[in-house]
Amino acid sequence: MSTYLPTQLPGPQPDLDDQPFWDFCKARELRIQACADCGKLRHPPMPACPACRSMRTTWRAVPGTGTVFSFTVCHYPAHASLKDVVPYNVSVVLLDGTDDIRIVSNVIDAEPDEIAIGMRVALAWDEVADGQVLPRFRRAP
Amino acid sequence: MTVAFPSDTAIVGLGESRYGRRGSITEVSEFQLLCEAIAAAAEDAGLDVGEIDGFCSFADERHEPVRIQQTLGIPQMRFSNLVWGAAGGGCSASVMNAALAVHAGICKTVVVYRSLCQGQYARFGQYRPRPIGGSYMTPFGLLTPAQYTALTFRRYMFEQGTTEQQLAAVPLTFRAHAQRNPRAIQFGKPLTKEEYFAARYIATPFRLYDCCLETDGACALIVTSLEKARDLRQKPARILAAAQASNKGWGLGPVASHNMALEDYGTTNSRALAEALFAMAGIGPEDVDVAQFYDAFSGLVLMALEDFGFVPRGGGGPFAAAGNLAWPNGTLPTNTAGGLLSEAYLHGLNLVSEGVRQIRGTSTAQVADAEISFVNSGGGAGHKSALILSR
């Protein structure tokens, strides 16, 4: 499986607040943290529900499709490993099955002049270093 | 809840080291530049450095008050304060804290300072580890302020119909202002629209000249009581209001997972701030004579114009393109020394200095009879702050 960005780029650094999110990713499941009391989804993972302040949490699977909410095409390589990779896109994807949850990601099969706000995308799991799997996206109908 | 700001403090001294491009100052340390700026600010005010008894700065400052106190032989330290992160977002808040400390009477003379030599330390425009929030950015190549601001501004452009032609007015106007300011790094280097559009993209929609300078330098200013100011050398710039705020749910904003409220995404997180600031000042945006907007990236200016109510939603691009930011004929001359784009990047403190000069009447692009001077602080990341100065 090819990675969209070089595996030398530092990966996620899970901590006690968000370890489950990244563990689910390793299992190729996109699950968003939800309040176990009022059900509200939140991202990034955090200890309490901003809506009801409950600290009981669960993790809810989402469909894995969405739309591009915003994007930038990065031309300047701000990390040494990206020198031969630019230009690449960073895209904020608004996830289906949620009111407003977005994840920062990449659309791996969109050329710089193709990507646009509103583009439909679907999950394309991408394995990087140390067995970590990242939620990237590809174009979808 | 009514809010109020004490009416008895002023900015009375301005000091700065020379400003150079990143890496151009190698013979003296960043710390020495800071000491030079503080000494110059005291001299400008007509104060002995030893009268300073308070120290304020904001996140990403490297030099602690105790070392400044030691090095400059300052007898007493009664107040020392650093505003939390998001770097530039805390700039006006550091002035606010200085004013509050003076008003409360726990100290008399506060220096507000920022030193920044990107040539001697790390560059902000390169990858840095971000222990909080970085997991949701770094693996996806979202590494720098230009990139994360590009995301919020791209959404703003989409929602408001802003064009790249409109955006170009921001860096071109500020570069023109810098041609009048010999202290500006871009002094003597005019920029044409053709050169602007021919420059490479850094992160779309931002081209090279949409991104601020990388600077070596330091600046400082002195805050004291209005009463004491009457005995000093300069015409005081009264701190009419200063405020710090963050919209509900913004969190670290674009320096994390980008889950700000949908309606806040394409903004500078300044609507709650604007409400508090103008309420305290007892004036509205229409009363402002001259403005300094935090322009780490050009697009921030268009978004902030709307967030602070200077123009209606969607009005930022047309307002800038019509020449309204330009000195002397625009309706709101903005970043009159050249801003972070063309004067220097001191994390916004040089914008406060220019706001003070406009009240003193000493700007190189002086707005005639300026009475109300506005400054905002902060770009993409966490909280924001702003202040209003008056005669």
Automatic annotation (TrEMBL), chain A:
What start-end ranges are recorded for coiled-coil regions in this protein? none
- List the Pfam families hit by this protein, alphabetically: OB_ChsH2_C (PF01796), zf-ChsH2 (PF12172)
Q: Per the database record, which ranges form the ChsH2 C-terminal OB-fold domain?
A: 59-126
Entries under Gene3D superfamilies matching the protein? 6.10.30.10
Which SUPFAM superfamilies does the UniProt record give? Answer: Nucleic acid-binding proteins
Domain ChsH2 rubredoxin-like zinc ribbon: residue ranges: 22-54
Q: What PANTHER family is this protein classified in?
A: BLR3430 PROTEIN
Under which name does UniProt file this protein?
Thiolase
Write down the species.
Answer: Xanthobacter tagetidis
From TrEMBL, chain B:
Domain Thiolase C-terminal, which positions? 262-389
One of this protein's Pfam families, by short name?
Thiolase_C_1
Q: Which residues form the signal peptide?
A: none
The Gene Ontology terms for molecular function here are:
acetyl-CoA C-acyltransferase activity
- PANTHER family assigned to the protein according to its UniProt record, in alphabetical order: ACETYL-COA C-ACETYLTRANSFERASE, NON-SPECIFIC LIPID-TRANSFER PROTEIN-LIKE 2
The name on file for this protein is: Thiolase C-terminal domain-containing protein
Organism in which the protein naturally occurs: Xanthobacter tagetidis
Q: Lineage in the entry?
A: Bacteria, Pseudomonadati, Pseudomonadota, Alphaproteobacteria, Hyphomicrobiales
